[in-house]
């Protein structure tokens, strides 16, 4: 690992990065499946409001003018509040993942939706529909640049299923306080992935698209407009 870090350079990043999260095209009442009584829906909503985190307040309000609190928490804060095992984390700390382009994040997220969710639930042979929301988020940071070394010298960082080596790298980055890293995409040729360990380098989330993922036979069909295929991803290619 020491030899890997000794050959790294920094990428001075000042650009928008694409974030892809689970969402719904149409809002739904999340409590209507618990009771048929509208008064009890209201009570549940009041309880939810009492335990919600406080609204985001920028340290630089002149720059970060008001936007929806939900966008900040969904697009930026969520992975830092809800730690999960991932490529660069063993689950003991949060990592935010984004991509250089919409296509890159679609291939990356489609893999995890299919392999990590549907297959685990035994739904890989069903017709399943999932909905996603894409955000553009500003990233301003000096990131460790793994792109020149991952393919030839350290391919285990891009292993499709074994995250052992990548998690050891992530543990060091987290321990030493680096803001994040930039590496090649695992799922999309020529794409790039960002792993951010410090939310302070992210700002200004803006909604881009609502997408629908539909699993049918051996393909995932991605739609920007409902009912109109935009991308078709063969299962054996993700």
Q: Can you put this structure into words, describing what you see?
A:
Helix content is 26%, strand content 33%. Strands 1, 4, 5, 6, 7, 8, 9 and 10 form an 8-stranded mixed sheet that branches. It has 5 helices and 10 strands. It is of the alpha+beta class and 238 residues long. The chain has one domain (2-30, 60-237). The protein has helices at 2-6, 38-51, 69-81, 102-118, 164-176; strands at residues 9-22, 85-86, 89-90, 96-99, 128-145, 180-184, 192-196, 202-216, 219-225, 228-234.
List keywords for this structure.
single chain; alpha+beta; 238 residues; eight-stranded mixed β-sheet; 10 strands
Q: Which regions have little confidence, pLDDT < 50, spanning 5+ residues? A: 25-32, 51-58, 60-67
Percentage of residues in helical conformation? 25-40%
* Helical segment count: 5
Largest sheet: 8 strands, mixed
Strand content: 25-35%
Structural class given helices, strands, pairing?
alpha+beta
Shape type = globular
Number of strands: 10
On the 0 to 100 scale, the average pLDDT is 86
> How big is the Rg?
19 Å
| Total domain modules | 1
Please write the string of helix (H) and strand (E) elements. HEHHEEEHEHEEEEE
End-to-end distance: 28 Å
């Amino acid at each position: 690992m020491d030899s890997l870090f000794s050959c790294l350079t920094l990428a001075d990043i000042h650009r928008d990065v694409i974030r892809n999260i689970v969402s719904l095209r149409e809002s739904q009442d999340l409590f209507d499946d618990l009771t048929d009584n509208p008064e009890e829906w209201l009570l549940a909503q009041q309880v939810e409001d009492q335990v919600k985190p406080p609204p985001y307040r920028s340290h630089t309000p002149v720059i970060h003018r008001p936007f929806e609190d939900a966008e900040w928490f969904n697009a930026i804060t969520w992975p830092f509040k809800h730690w999960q095992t991932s490529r660069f984390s063993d689950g003991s700390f949060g990592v935010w993942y984004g991509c250089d382009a919409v296509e890159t994040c679609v291939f990356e997220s489609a893999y995890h939706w299919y392999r990590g969710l549907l297959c685990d639930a035994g739904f890989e042979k069903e017709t399943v529909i999932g909905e996603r929301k894409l955000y553009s988020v500003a990233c301003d940071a000096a990131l460790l640049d793994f792109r020149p070394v991952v393919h030839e010298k350290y391919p285990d960082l891009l292993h499709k299923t074994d995250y052992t080596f990548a998690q050891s790298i992530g543990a060091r980055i987290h321990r030493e306080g680096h803001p994040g890293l930039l590496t090649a995409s695992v799922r999309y040729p020529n794409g790039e992935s960002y792993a951010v360990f410090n939310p302070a380098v992210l700002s200004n989330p803006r909604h881009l698209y609502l997408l629908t993922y539909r699993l049918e036979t051996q393909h995932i069909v991605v739609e920007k407009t409902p009912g109109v295929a935009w991308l078709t991803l063969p299962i054996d290619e993700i």
